[in-house]
């Protein structure tokens, strides 16, 4: 926690909505950077999908409070404020779906989108529960569970 008073925060932000938007931006920036790292490191759709998931799990564990704010409070932003962030988040969701469909050609786009949303949701929900003391082991488990939910294998 940072020792900052309410009035000090409002010298930097003009409203609670701006504070919320900044928290969501911080989380989205970290996910974007994790996805970029995955794109640089992976050589095929299966490896890329696993990297997307593993990297998101790492961010979600490390930044559980930001992810919780993002998932629970974004709906409180005005539509105009929410739209740019929604487009940004939809773009990386779409990247995950694209890789899933390359790995699982038996799925259509709607099915892939639903599975990716489920995988993101389970990681986001479980990352901050405090059920595990070892972040690396939790990352491995969340990655395996998300890949299982997508119907993919690590091998």
Describe the model.
The mean pLDDT is 85. It contains seven helices and no strands. It is an all-alpha fold and 155 residues long. It is globular, with a radius of gyration of 17 Å. It starts with 5 loop residues before the first helix and ends in a 5-residue tail after the last helix. Helices cover 78% and strands 0% of the residues.
In short:
With 155 residues, this protein is mainly α.
Give short descriptive properties of this protein:
155 residues; mainly alpha; 7 helices; 78% helix
**Uncertain parts:** none
The radius of gyration computed from the alpha-carbon positions, rounded to a whole number of angstroms, is: 17 Å
The average pLDDT score comes to 85
Helix content: over 70%
**Total beta-strand segments:** 0
Overall structural class, as computed from helix and strand content, comes to mainly alpha
Approximate strand percentage: under 5%
List the helices and strands and how they pair.
Elements: H1 6-12, H2 16-41, H3 45-62, H4 64-73, H5 79-103, H6 109-127, H7 135-150
